Amino acid sequence: xxxxxxxxxxxxxxxxxxxxxxxxxxxxxxxxxxxxxxxxxxxxxxxxxxxxxxxxxxxxxxxxxxxxxxxxxxxxxxxxxxxxxxxxxxxxxxxxxxxxxxxxxxxxxxxxxxxxxxxxxxxxxxxxxxxxxxxxxxxxxxxxxxxxxxxxxxxxxxxxxxxxxxxxxxxxxxxxxxxxxxxxxxxxxxxxxxxxxxxxxxxxxxxxxxxxxxxxxxxxxxxxxxxxxxxxxxxxxxxxxxxxxxxxxxxxxxxxxxxxxxxxxxxxxxxxxxxxxxxxxxxxxxxxxxxxxxxxxxxxxxxxxxxxxxxxxxxxxxxxxxxxxxxxxxxxxxxxx
Length: 337
Prior knowledge:
Elements: H1 3-7, E1 11-16, H2 26-43, E2 47-50, H3 64-74, E3 79-82, E4 85-86, H4 92-105, E5 110-115, H5 122-128, H6 138-150, E6 167-170, H7 174-181, E7 186-189, H8 194-207, E8 219-227, H9 231-237, H10 239-251, H11 260-264, H12 270-281, E9 283-286, H13 288-302, E10 306-309, H14 318-329
Helix pairs in contact: 2-3, 2-14, 4-6, 7-8, 10-12
């Protein structure tokens, strides 16, 4: 199978984290997310997911089930979900009820992506009533959450009880084993350290236990990928997010995105340069020919069933990048956007 055929053999979806640009109000970023979902649907993408971040100046998406409801109400066909709801921050019963409401209002279109991360700082964890150790209870919380849907839980949880909402586990390392043990699809981030990534995928497949949620492993690979007319243009599109990642690791907070030109002109310290190179290592960028090869090779190496694109820069060029990917993947647009 050549790389063009590989791109057309998998599903293509989008994770939007409602990143805030410098000078932009959070409400504007949230409205852009809803508008972007309409555009993604028109381009033929399969899913549109939103994420959960708390007390982050550069991210507006703090309430994923609420934002997912707005996205679902503004679209018609595309599947809508979370990438993901972080179970250590919530009671499983409340999460079940929220997704039960979503599925009741938008039947057959809702996905339940679930993660085990806790707040980035001690202050955020305290405000959420969560501790680092709570991540170790993820498997237990996941089992409780699923029990409310299949009616085996400690109590009834209408409207969730009896509904089918596909669950996905966002994980690396230990979390891959949890996804396998529960027979659930795995959402794995594309890592700069591909050996670590492939080891986690292999573990997931080897330990997968078929059950009511699926009879075979299903891998969704989350990839930060940008496509433009030239490789240089594509690389420039991802600079703001890479720098924001460096900023968060050196100053403890993920900031609003700076314009690409300003990031390109920055003089990094030795530590910043090292972290910047690490952030860039997991980003893929190029022209259409280069990205056909890069993405096709990645599909071949991982055996991914679906790619979840996470390129979230709101500066001009993002929509063009997603249009180019849709064309490479052979997606069928609903109408011009």
